[in-house]
């Protein structure tokens, strides 16, 4: 049984504490993502536009606060920033749940509360990225990131089913209340966390604006960082709308609607699980080379959706891209944590969140109008023509090709037992 537990959980006690608290919270987030639209629509008079408004209220704070979150996560103990964020999100979700359960919820209430939630999320994410090297040895970073990814991928597969069951049993309000409870559990684990102390000599100096500029300098001084961020931005802004916007539209027009599309989403989730298991079990010596190749495969999603003749074919190929996505992001996160100075890691990570999660709504907003103008399939093909070369261009960057994973730490050989006379 012990051998079934990943080594990083057995050997890294602080990471284990962090992981067990985060696992429930991450699954709760996946469930909440599915439930929130139904929570909005449960309000009398609400429509699809209101669903979009509440979703935007959650995502827009990343654009506004991601960089500030990175600065404060480098200025303050990251564990403390994450703890406060969890408590704010607990209160926010609990208030949403109470309003829904009592029938007092209005769209304006949800917009305000989800904006608070999104703001706290924008501070949590850079702090979490910076905390990882303080609770995991460098040789275990890939395993730790893969294990976190495995939980998120499992939530992607199981989340819709769990969400449907919770809506049936306790309604949207009750389901949101359970998500709120997951943040309280995460906060309890974070309060018990004892990360390694950062070197005081590396502490950021100067005011907020000076540290903000320093974070930008840290990004731009590393070719492998800004070039990978550029490729990831293309993926999020150009390629992902094929999955979130155009894929469902095409499915509704030609493949039978939501039920058929759910097969594609589930297949992608299964592929992601497989990719995370590979990253958990296989040590990869050149992480950014694998990340670039995997991102190129992942960027074929638009082509797959547009050219796939049937849902089973699309689903099978989307499972392959799910493997690629899991590998790409695990290798990228591990490279950041292992090679960016600890004192600047959260600020550098904040650019990742700003240029991916923060800018993705832009792509979601323009994908539909472009498809209406030039056609659904030409738009999907064009997405791939932009996404794949952007990913492959990373392989032309010498710093990307030279990047090596941290070498495993040699374990001391025990001294032989003395021989009895």
UniProtKB/TrEMBL annotation:
Pfam family, one: MFS_3
InterPro entries: MFS_trans_sf, TM_effector
GO CC annotation: plasma membrane
SUPFAM superfamilies given in the database record: MFS general substrate transporter
Organism domain of life: Bacteria
UniProt main location, coarse: membrane
Name of the protein described by the UniProt record: MFS transporter
Entry keyword annotation includes Calcium: no
Entry keyword set: Cell membrane, Membrane, Transmembrane, Transmembrane helix, Transport
Membrane topology: Multi-pass membrane protein
Subcellular location: Cell membrane
Record's keyword annotation contains Transport: yes
């Amino acid at each position: 049984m012990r051998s079934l537990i990943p080594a990083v959980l057995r050997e890294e006690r602080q990471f284990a504490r962090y992981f067990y608290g985060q696992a429930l919270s991450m699954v709760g987030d996946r469930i909440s993502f599915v439930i929130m639209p139904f929570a909005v629509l449960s309000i009398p008079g609400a429509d699809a536009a209101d669903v979009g408004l509440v979703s935007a209220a959650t995502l827009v704070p990343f654009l506004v606060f991601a960089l500030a979150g990175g600065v404060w996560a480098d200025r303050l103990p990251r564990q403390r920033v994450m703890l406060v964020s969890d408590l704010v999100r607990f209160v926010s979700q609990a208030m949403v749940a109470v309003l829904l359960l009592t029938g007092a919820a209005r769209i304006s209430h949800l917009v305000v509360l989800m904006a608070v939630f999104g703001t706290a999320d924008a501070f949590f994410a850079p702090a979490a990225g910076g905390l990882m090297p303080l609770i995991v040895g460098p040789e275990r970073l890939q395993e730790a990131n893969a294990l976190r990814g495995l939980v998120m991928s499992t939530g992607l597969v199981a989340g819709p089913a769990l969400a449907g069951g919770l809506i049936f049993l306790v309604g949207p309000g009750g389901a949101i209340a359970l998500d709120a409870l997951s943040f309280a559990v995460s906060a309890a684990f974070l309060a018990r966390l004892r990360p390694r102390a950062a070197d005081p000599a590396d502490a950021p100096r100067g005011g907020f604006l000076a540290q903000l500029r320093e974070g930008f300098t840290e990004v731009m001084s590393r070719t492998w960082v800004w070039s990978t961020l550029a490729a990831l931005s293309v993926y999020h802004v150009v390629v992902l709308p094929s999955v979130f916007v155009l894929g469902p539209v095409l499915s509704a027009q030609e493949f039978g609607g939501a039920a058929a599309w759910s097969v594609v989403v589930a297949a992608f989730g299964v592929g992601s699980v497989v990719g995370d298991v590979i990253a958990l079990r296989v040590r990869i010596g050149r992480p950014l080379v694998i990340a670039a190749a995997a991102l190129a495969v992942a960027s074929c999603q638009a082509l797959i959706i547009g050219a796939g003749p049937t849902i089973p074919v699309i689903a099978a190929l989307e499972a392959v891209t799910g493997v690629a996505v899991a590998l790409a992001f695990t290798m990228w996160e591990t490279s950041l944590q292992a090679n960016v100075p600890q004192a600047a890691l959260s600020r550098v990570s904040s650019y990742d969140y700003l240029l991916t999660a923060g800018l993705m709504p832009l792509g979601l907003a323009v994908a539909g109008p472009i498809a209406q103008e030039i056609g659904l399939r030409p738009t999907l093909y064009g997405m791939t023509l932009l996404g794949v070369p952007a990913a492959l261009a990373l392989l032309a960057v010498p710093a990307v090709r030279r990047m090596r994973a941290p070498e495993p730490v040699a374990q001391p050989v025990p001294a032989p037992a003395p021989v009895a006379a």
